[in-house]
Fold this protein.
Amino acid sequence: MSLLTKPNPPDDSKSAVLTKAESADRRTRLAGRPWKGAEREYDLFKELTVGVVVVGLLVLGVAGLAGSPDEATVNLQTWATASPSDFVATATAELGKTSDTASYGPPYSTTRGATQTLGAIDFQSLSGTRIPINTAADFVTTPLRKLHSETAALATWDAAGAAQQGQWTSNYSAALAKSSGGNPATVKSGSYGPVPALVSGLLAEARRGALDGTIQAEGGLFNTDYTRTILFLGDGAYFPGLATAQHLTGDQWGMMNETGNYPGQSWLWLFSFWYQVPAIGSLGNADLVVVGLMLVLTTLLALVPFIPGLRSLPRWIPIHRLIWRNYYRRR
């Protein structure tokens, strides 16, 4: 090679690589320099402790001043004290096995024709009677036995046959309906057997707060299953009346409401919407129809990317471009 040969021009790509490497090395050396500014100790554990204590005190203080936004718990004692006539009427229906729970069907009973069906398909019966409930025993006689109350009336009740028991409760229910405001004290004498004594004893136990724990304890010593108590409450008029007052029923968008003037689960609006449609909300199997509609809509949503025409809607109606307009402007 001649000494006068002109050297090759520099490779721009290699220069760029070297420049980036040098730049990275410069930053590394800068980060590795010793700090010459002010220094002070920092205790993360101390800061966390102080933060938790301060926030905890603030929460407790505000809760003490403002109270809880939730309504007070409703139990059998509340019901028996606020509406004793409704309690007695409901207890009589439970004893006679004519309440809503007694005739609900699976999973509580085997009542025929009580289930919601979709054509010939009976989904409600598929699970069977998993939580068998005998309203007379579970809500009235068993709690009274455990509390050693009305033993003579219980003996008379047990000695009678099912037909006689049904006649007694039917007679007493009719007498309560004709009395002044459903007050048991104004019921005229009749063939009621031990029913008045049983329901009056149950009312007394509920008023003193013994019935709630007794019914719930039927499931074991440490029981968190409130099914029986809630069903008993729901069979009366008092508890549903509270729900209506709080706009919690199905025809009041209750599925997405909370007690009081507080926001509820707004994402459940689509479930609640179908109950507001008269053609659906008035159906005897409205719950099953609404669940079916939501399953269909959820399936369609999941299959949007695979459905021709439907998957093209974002291109035809480019709302996303309006929302992300800065991104698309840069593109």
Q: What stands out?
A: The CA atoms of residues 12 and 105 lie 83 Å apart.
